[in-house]
Predict the structure.
Amino acid sequence: MPFPGWLRATVGGAAGILLSRVDYSLFFMKFFRNLSRSKARARLHNNKYAMIPVMLGIEEPIKIKDDIDAENAMTITREELEEMDGFEGAPLYLAIKGRVYDVSAGQRFYGEGKEYHEWVGKDASRSFGTGCRGGVDRTGMDCLTESLEGLTEKELKEVDRWLELYETHDKYTFVGYLVDDPVNDILDNLSDETEGGDRHVQNEQEEPAEETVDLN
């Protein structure tokens, strides 16, 4: 029995609207990410059935535990990370949740002008959760920031899925932990102390002199 013309038009129109709202770039990014994760799970845990729940999105991301000897691990400042952008022979580094990874082996994905290059040289943890890679997200915050404030449980799970990818990928390597530059911290503390001292001196200068009483 043929479908009425109005029904075909309605279904076709609805499908067109749904497809127009799909971010194909993000869709394929997640698809290949999950494909790599399922292969890693099969390789590392001998789980040949890992692909099904991972590709369906019904699995729980593997929680990454801090290294036992984390205090002896390499640390990288934000300024140093910014220089690891692939230019002039530099490697390609990115950070997620404060963990820095070398993704130089993924040059065709992370190199200049490539799909994932916005994540290179910074900790853009928020972007991994929201999928926003430029400007501000729905909360009004910068997309490419490390802050996870205001993210939903679903978005936080997406961040953990990307973290699992980098941690378990056979071509990407963990480099170390992202830290603030200690020199900048010292300079900031000195600046705060100087400002505090200046305010103290200014307050002393502004205090009125005590009145003296002439008893003669």
In short: The chain has a mean pLDDT of 83. The chain has eight helices and four strands. Strands lie at 75-77, 93-96, 99-102, 173-179. The helical segments are 5-20, 24-45, 51-56, 78-83, 107-110, 125-130, 153-168, 182-206.
